[in-house]
Structures are given as structure tokens and as C-alpha cells.
């Protein structure tokens, strides 16, 4: 019996030997995509926190440093929102900490850290600034559900 005549339930053995490795790689890739898409979406509480942070960025009088250029607050918020929406659609944002870590801390292209400079306050990392804003938000909303 040749390899092609083993029937529909022969598994990988029904593929020619020279194609088996390609089939294994394709199956592995599909499995990884399915696993990656199974990540949980942000909870309503996390979405509220992220929206608060994005609004805080947009309404601040701060300037944001990204990839060698300083941007105004509204441009920075729009950029962070775009990154957030892209990562959330891929299932990579499960909570507010994921948002800060994956979308709002450094450039996904260059790997360079983002910085923030507000009037009268020393320049700091975006992680430090956003974490401080998040701590304030959580303290103000400690009575409500999280």
C-alpha cells in the first residue's frame, strides 16, 4: 500500500514524507494563533481605568517624548489609543497593567522608552507618570467595584 492510499484518517502519514514537516509547522502555527486569540479582553473596570489614563494624557498640559520627538498631549493620547486598540484586538491587553506595559511605556518599533515632561515637574518615564495617575484613580474609586 502506498502512502497515498491509507484513507482519510491516516493523520500525517497520509502526506508525502517530504511534506510532513511543513504540515507539522502549519498545524503548530494555527495552534499558536488560536492560543494567542484566546486571551481575555479587558474587564469593564480595566477599560474604565484605561479610558481614564487616556483622558488624563489628552487633557494634560504635558509633552510626550517618543522616538526622538516631543508631542503635544492630544497627539500622544491619540497614538496611545491606537496602540491600545490594536493590541486589545489581538487579545494582548487583559488589564490596565498590560496597557501600561505593552502600549504606553515604549516604542514597539524602536524599543525606546517614552518620557513625559509637565510644567514645573521633572521629566519622567511614561510608566512612572501613568502609574501615579492610576494609583490616584484607584484611590478615588476604592469604594466602588473593580
Describe the overall structure:
The protein is of the alpha+beta class and 146 residues long. It has a domain at 44-140. It is built from five helices and four strands; from the N terminus they run H-H-E-E-H-H-E-E-H. It has helices at 20-37, 44-59, 73-89, 96-103, 126-140; strands at 63-66, 69-71, 115-117, 124-125. The chain has a four-stranded antiparallel sheet. Helix 2 runs antiparallel to helix 3 and helix 2 (44-59) packs across helix 5. The longest helix has 18 residues, at 20-37. The radius of gyration is 23 Å and the shape is elongated. It starts with 19 loop residues before the first helix and ends in a 6-residue tail after the last helix.
User: What is the terminal-to-terminal distance?
Assistant: 63 Å
Element order, helices and strands?
HHEEHHEEH
Q: Strands of the biggest beta sheet: in what spatial order?
A: 2-1-3-4
Silhouette: elongated
What percent strand? 5-15%
Number of strands: 4
**Average pLDDT figure:** 85
Percent of residues in helices comes to 40-55%
The total count of helices amounts to 5
Biggest sheet details: 4 strands, antiparallel
Oligomer: single chain
Poorly predicted spans: none
Structural class: alpha+beta
Output the radius of gyration: 23 Å
